[in-house]
Structures
1.
Amino acid sequence: MLKIVNLKAAINGKEILKGLNLEVKPGEVHAIMGPNGSGKSTLAAVLAGREIFEVTEGQIMFEGKDLTTLSPEDRAREGIFLGFQYPIEIPGVSMNNFMKTAVNEVRKYRGLTPLTAGEFLKMMREKKELVEIDSKLTNRSVNEGFSGGEKKKNEIFQMAMLEPKLAILDETDSGLDIDALRIVANGVNKLKSSENAVIVITHYQRLLDYIVPDFVHVLYNGQIVRSAGKELAYELEEKGYDWIKKEVDQLEAN
Amino acid sequence: MNQYKEELNPETNQDQLLQEMTQSDYKYGFVTDIESDTIEKGLSEETVRLISGKKNEPAWMLEFRLKAYRHWLTLPLPTWPHLTIPEIDYQDIIYYSAPKQKKSLSSLDEVDPELLDTFNKLGIPLDEQKLLTGVAVDAVMDSVSVKTTFKKNLADLGIIFCSFSEAVQEYPDLVKKYMGTVVPYRDNYYAALNSAVFSDGSFVYIPKGVRCPMELSTYFRINAANTGQFERTLIVADDNAYVSYLEGCTAPMRDENQLHAAIVEIIAMDHASVKYSTVQNWYPGDKEGKGGIYNFVTKRGMCKGVHSKISWTQVETGSAVTWKYPSCILRGDHSVGEFYSVAVTNNYQQADTGSKMIHIGKNTKSTIVSKGISAGRSQNSYRGLVRVARNADNARNFSQCDSLLLGDKCGAHTFPYLEVDNQSAIVEHEATTSKIGEDQIFYCNQRGISTEDAIGLIVNGYAKEVLNQLPMEFAVEAQKLLQISLEGSVG
């Protein structure tokens, strides 16, 4: 589904990703962990097509297409969803209107007719139940005045509405209390299928108790320096990152 | 033939597409090639007499024009607006230009097909069958009214809806009684100029107790080059009458600036209600700020009777420079004045616009909601006055002015003036400034929404309160217009 080969990306001339490789297949859950400043959020932004990042080398193939040639909106329409670390407020634009535009744009791209008002409202209702978010949230403007937890739940709700092939959740667990964390994780689990995939970016093993990854990768200094099963997350929780940093730095010194 | 060529040469096709795309911001920029009756450039008493003569006006009307002209000569140019306007050479303007057509029109067949075609292209078919149901139109091109639709249906109810020139001939008593009572020719520089040289416009009279069953609308079109448009509209709603009126305006794309200085007067008697909506889309000039219309307009309504109401709604997207303050004089006790405005400026456009609410009667109420949107290198100012007179007990005003900025090269300014001479008045003013951020756009992009649509969503969300005031048929049009006006302004 997703194949990243030797990806290098920079912001204002400063290289952040330094030859990253990653392959994600349908049905898989990948967790990306790593110390602050290792490039985790940059990876998410580059995949979503944020323009301030420049891809200087390497390849990102998604479902056989070269992602780097697509606009951010076309990537979304192809089925890439980014759950934002800091969801953006858009005053004056109702969630209803926002979601309707988004869903219908994606449908148009896929050659489907727009949903009727009735169909759309039914879908909204179903998805709201699925991800257990407060019905009233969708009557408000996009993220405006939402609490931290509400914003994150709203991201998962939007993910449910857009039914992406690949969801990238950028520190969705940050700032969540334990109840909200469970709701968010439950939502993600319910949306999981053999056809889609999830990349979870997180600092803490805590989230991975709920969203169980098939692979855990450690991103350090712009590269994936270690990949293993979910047990790696426990090891990191226990020992921190220093031992990996040391190993890598030593390797490079040699 | 043309099509054949296009098929052979895909490159031409692409170029055309590209051109269409980049010019899509102003789709009304075409010129109609039509023979016109145009007078010489320049302004003098002679010009005023000539215009009056062409319209075959009675002596009192010429007298009014001449008084206005002589007064205008004594006036200095207003310099208080937050606008930069190159000096206008009033001798370099044509003050009268009329598309040539047969004298009196009894049916549509007699309207020049070129003219019909022009208004068709603008989406204003003058064929009653094809018109939006429930909308009667007066179409004004340059200095004259081309055609007024549904006149007969309206006449059955005693409603008068005709061109101003016709009203001068047919209903001189009404015109004489009301003209200049809300906006006297001495009012300001451009009002004096208009009163001297005005050419045409619409006249509306709704008799006692009549609720006008359809939207009345005037569509103004500037076509001829170097010509100024000076129209005058007068709307009178008698006791217990109601009317909703809409004006629209467009002009061709030309490199030189053109002057538009209009007057609108509204009078509402006891329990009468008038709703006046404007979708102003004069040519704004090109991306470098070349050309465009100078839109200097005086619009004012008088709530003369008790419990009367006048409501202004404006969507201002066009014009190189806009100078306009639709106002209400709340003279009748319990009268209500409203002003809802969305003003968009992009590229090098400048707007200094707002409202005046003058509370004179007791228990009068006014509302001002102004939404400015600035993009490019434009300057957008809100200027508003709320005055509560000494005897206006229990006057109430609520003003809200919001500014939305796109990019960092534009400016938004707010100039509220309050003059309160009565202790019992309650006057509230709220103001906010916000920005469309790149992160908001990216958030929308990431959900599959293009940048253009994202701006449309955000801007329309922001302006919703005002757009909701527009008659249904025009609200959709106005939404699209907002989006088009801001195309290419982010990212």
2.
Amino acid sequence: MPIIVNLDVMLAKRKMKSKDLAEIIGITKANLSILKSGKAKAIRFSTLEAICKALDCQPSDILEFQE
Amino acid sequence: MISLSSLFKWLTASFIFLVGIQFLLTFGQLAVYLSQGSFNSKQIIGIRLPEQFSDAWFIVLVLITSIALAYFIFYLLKLWVIANDFSKREVFSKENAKSLNSIGKGICIFTVTLLGIDFILNLSYFFSLINQEEATSLAYTLGKRIGYIMGILAKWFPLLILAIFMLILSELIAKGSLIKSENDLTI
């Protein structure tokens, strides 16, 4: 899929663990792993909003389009 | 109250039992022939054949019918596995869609095979209709022949409808599994 999820990069920048982020945004670790690995087929606006709030960033920092 | 999925499971099990009995009755005729050297009565899927019908041809017919019935039982067992999945609420999966598709095709082949056998076995009666004394008018003979063909078709038509229903259901389950996987992978 040409949409790349840069969640790992943002987590490293904010020095936050996946487990902590999952707890803050209220999703399971397994679902966060699906999102990080790029296996997810869609992301809800509410989840994106929660991630952006937790990591204090913009959606463009997390999602990237590559040909 | 019994749930629909359990009802489906029990109906499938009863169907397997009934077809199994039919298989034993059909195949059992060979055992009778082997032990006695002759057939008690020549009967296949409820059709009684004339006594002068050759033993060799009857054995071939019994074997073809038994194979068709065994094939049908195999697909019914597959359906029973799916019925179990349904009762566990794992309905929308690619495996279920594939199995239902093969069951639908299998039942179609079984029905067409037995419809052919039924028709061939009754050909002698079909052609004798025209020679009967009461068949004085052409319209009467034509009507009786059409009625006769409709009778044979009506006997096997419900199974054909079941097969088509299975094929439609398999397409719905395939589409459902796609939607389910998309829903499962939406975070």
